[in-house]
Amino acid sequence: MNKKILIVDDINFIVDFEKTVLDSLSKELNITIDIDVANTVTDAIKMIDGNKYDALVLDMNLPDGTGVEVAKAALNKDEHIRIAALTIYPNKYEEHRAYFSMFLKKPIMPKAYKESICQLLRI
């Protein structure tokens, strides 16, 4: 089984955490999880335009906009894509819930992140 995820976050240690946990999950489940990374809304939208993703994990506060903008672009391309918001303030974005499959609260522990990703990817 192959899955492809786009992580969008401008904080490198959070990206590193997510990649490490996803690599661990990939080994545990004996599946391939390809990971792309973008640090801005602009880069994320370019990557979405050029790739097919099973899921996105989006930071909500990016240097050039919000995760909501990325979610809208992704859903315009593929209305079935699964999108998680990873944010310190999930309640702040409640009005945008329709664009997201789930909200994850920072900080998040590896076990909770893995469980959420399994739900997101439906594995």
Q: If you had to describe this structure to a student in words, what would you say it looks like?
A:
The protein is an alpha/beta fold and 123 residues long. It has a single domain, classed as Rossmann fold (3-Layer(aba) Sandwich). It is built from four helices and seven strands, in the order βαβαβββαββα. It has helices at 12-29, 41-50, 67-77, 110-121, and strands spanning 2-8, 32-38, 55-59, 61-62, 65-66, 82-87, 102-105. The strands form two sheets. It has a five-stranded parallel beta sheet with strand order 2-1-3-6-7, with helices on both faces. It has a two-stranded antiparallel ribbon with strand order 4-5. β4 and β5 form a beta hairpin. α1 packs across α4. The radius of gyration is 13 Å and the shape is globular. It starts with a strand and ends with a helix. 29% of the residues are buried.
Label the overall shape.
globular
Q: Could you give the count of β-strands?
A: 7
Q: Largest beta sheet: what is the strand line-up?
A: 2-1-3-6-7
Fraction of helical residues: 40-55%
Mean pLDDT: 95
CATH class: Alpha Beta
Q: Which structural class do you get from the secondary structure elements?
A: alpha/beta
Could you tell me the CATH topology label: Rossmann fold
Domain count: 1
Instruction: Return the string of H and E elements.
Output: EHEHEEEHEEH
Distance between the termini: 10 Å
Radius of gyration: 13 Å
Spell out the CATH superfamily. Response regulator
Uncertain residue segments? none
Instruction: Count up the helices.
Output: 4
Overall CATH architecture: 3-Layer(aba) Sandwich
